[in-house]
């Protein structure tokens, strides 16, 4: 029996159905909380491209360093460069410190996320995340409080990252036993972008460092981009929390040099200027995290393909249900899994790093 026009219309998908976007699996409370965070952060962005830092300081209070062990990890604030007033927070597992008194602890130089403009090394979420990394991986974590946009644009955070490596290169600066021949750079989102560019700069002239040897790069959902809109950006815009097209575009405008677009080397790793250092054997192995509900995932996959095409060691950890910045939320099982993977990455690359260090003149 043929269906009536009315029945056919009832069976056909409506525009609303076609426009429906996937939602990441999480509790209603978590979804609501992240939506509030997004709205509040957006409210601090001014039309002239500046940020209301006063309001942000109230919304993102700095937590103090704790010199006595908290959950097995102690922390302290250190000055990396007095001229630029660059600071960092150093985390170390108390139990491992005694054992490492002879050889020293491996160290991860960490860069927090926040679109180059938001958050800090003392933000509650990043203080807690660095504690977990130090505890699970039995490493020291130097979380760099790099200069933020729009007050400090490209290349300020990259310069700060290199300054952190130079700080570690001088043994006189070490407040506890560190083995900087097993040094890693790591970060999430904008911090992942910074970690990549710092590794690239290091690889351009590794001989300028007496002691520091990069053993690995941990890029957690790094913030890359370009002028085109990828499938994942369009598909997940407005559906996934934290990252949206409008928000990401604002962050690039706040960070890149005036007049630059997203083809700039800081944003687009395919830019010819962004290739410098990647061919060097000193560019380290990479552990890359990708989330299935991260609008930036297509750029991250291209990043992995680019490095693999150059013969680089890239290990990709895929989390199909993960949102952007998933690993800072302990409520997600994937968060614990990835930090365990980080610990394994450090443990597995340590022998290779030691061998490479012994080959240096």
Question: What report would you give on this structure?
Answer:
By secondary structure, the protein is α/β, with parallel strands linked by helices. The chain has one domain (41-349): Rossmann fold (3-Layer(aba) Sandwich), CATH 3.40.50.1820. The chain is 39% helix and 18% strand. The chain contains 12 helices and 8 strands. The protein has helices at 5-11, 15-19, 28-43, 53-59, 94-99, 124-137, 156-169, 190-204, 231-236, 245-255, 297-309, 333-359; strands at residues 73-81, 86-93, 105-111, 140-145, 178-188, 214-220, 286-293, 314-323. It has an 8-stranded mixed β-sheet with strand order 1-2-4-3-5-6-7-8, sandwiched between helices. 41% of the residues are buried.
Short description:
This protein is of the alpha/beta class and 361 residues long. 39% of the residues lie in helices and 18% in strands. The protein is globular, with a radius of gyration of 21 Å.
Annotate the secondary structure layout.
Blueprint: H1 5-11, H2 15-19, H3 28-43, H4 53-59, E1 73-81, E2 86-93, H5 94-99, E3 105-111, H6 124-137, E4 140-145, H7 156-169, E5 178-188, H8 190-204, E6 214-220, H9 231-236, H10 245-255, E7 286-293, H11 297-309, E8 314-323, H12 333-359
Parallel strand pairs: 3-4, 3-5, 5-6, 6-7, 7-8
Antiparallel strand pairs: 1-2, 2-4
**Spatial arrangement of strands, main beta sheet:** 1-2-4-3-5-6-7-8
* The CATH H-level homologous superfamily: Alpha/Beta hydrolase fold, catalytic domain
Count of distinct structural domains:
1
What share of residues is helical? Answer: 25-40%
Distance between the ends: 85 Å
Question: Helix count, per DSSP?
Answer: 12
Per the principal axes of the C-alpha atoms, what is the gross shape?
globular
Q: What is the CATH class name?
A: Alpha Beta
Structural class, by secondary structure, is alpha/beta
Q: Give the CATH topology.
A: Rossmann fold
Largest sheet: 8 strands, mixed
Strand content: 15-25%
In CATH terms, what is the architecture? Answer: 3-Layer(aba) Sandwich
Mean pLDDT: 91
Radius of gyration: 21 Å
Point out poorly predicted stretches. Answer: 1-18
Number of strands: 8
> Element order, helices and strands?
HHHHEEHEHEHEHEHHEHEH
InterPro entries: AB_hydrolase_3 (IPR013094), AB_hydrolase_fold (IPR029058), Carboxylest/Gibb_receptor (IPR050466)
Organism: Panicum hallii var. hallii
Pfam family, one: Abhydrolase_3
GO molecular function: hydrolase activity
């Amino acid at each position: 029996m043929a269906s009536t026009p009315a029945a056919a219309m009832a069976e056909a998908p409506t525009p609303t159905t076609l426009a429906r976007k996937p939602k990441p699996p999480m509790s209603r409370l978590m979804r609501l909380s992240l939506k509030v965070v997004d709205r509040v952060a957006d409210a601090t962005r001014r039309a002239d491209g500046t940020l209301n830092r006063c309001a942000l300081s109230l919304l993102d209070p700095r937590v103090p360093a704790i010199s006595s062990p908290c959950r097995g990890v102690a922390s302290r604030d250190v000055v990396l460069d007095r001229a630029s007033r660059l600071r960092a927070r150093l985390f170390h597992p108390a139990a491992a410190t005694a054992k490492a008194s002879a050889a020293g602890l491996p160290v991860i130089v960490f860069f927090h996320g926040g679109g180059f403009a938001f958050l800090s090394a003392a933000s509650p979420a990043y203080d807690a995340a660095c504690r977990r990394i130090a505890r699970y991986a039995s490493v020291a974590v130097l979380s760099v409080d790099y200069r933020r946009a729009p007050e400090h644009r490209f290349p300020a955070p990259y310069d700060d990252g290199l300054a952190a490596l130079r700080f570690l290169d001088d043994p006189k600066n070490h407040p506890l036993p560190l083995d900087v021949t097993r040094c890693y750079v790591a970060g999430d989102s904008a911090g992942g972008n910074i970690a990549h560019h710092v590794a690239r700069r290091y690889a351009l002239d590794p001989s300028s460092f007496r002691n520091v040897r990069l053993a690995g790069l941990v890029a957690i959902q790094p913030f890359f981009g370009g002028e085109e809109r990828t499938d994942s950006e369009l598909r997940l815009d407005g559906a996934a929390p934290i990252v949206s097209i409008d928000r990401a575009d604002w962050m690039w405008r706040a960070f890149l040099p005036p007049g630059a677009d997203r083809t700039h080397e800081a944003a687009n790793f395919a830019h010819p200027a962004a290739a410098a250092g990647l061919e060097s054997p000193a560019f380290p192995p990479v552990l890359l995290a990708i989330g299935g509900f991260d609008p930036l995932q297509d750029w991250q996959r291209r990043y992995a393909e680019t490095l693999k095409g150059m013969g680089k060691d890239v290990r990709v950890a895929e989390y199909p249900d993960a949102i952007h910045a998933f690993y800072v939320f302990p409520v997600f099982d994937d968060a614990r899994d990835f930090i365990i993977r980080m610990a394994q990455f450090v443990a597995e690359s340590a022998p290779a790093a030691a061998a490479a260090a012994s080959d240096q003149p």
